[in-house]
Q: What sequence folds into this?
């Protein structure tokens, strides 16, 4: 599903902003995913770490 959504989003971006819009999309998607990543990892500890 992610691949299909990315293809559709890429098509919309290309139609709306041309080739110059692709770098903006490439920068925006990781920035949008960062809050999810930060909150998802919050309660987990790295494997192999010894906690006092």
A:
């Amino acid at each position: 599903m992610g691949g299909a959504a990315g293809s559709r989003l890429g098509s919309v971006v290309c139609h709306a902003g041309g080739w110059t819009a692709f770098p903006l999309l490439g920068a925006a998607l990781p920035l949008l995913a960062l809050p999810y990543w930060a909150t998802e990892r919050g309660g987990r500890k790295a494997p192999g770490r010894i906690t006092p």
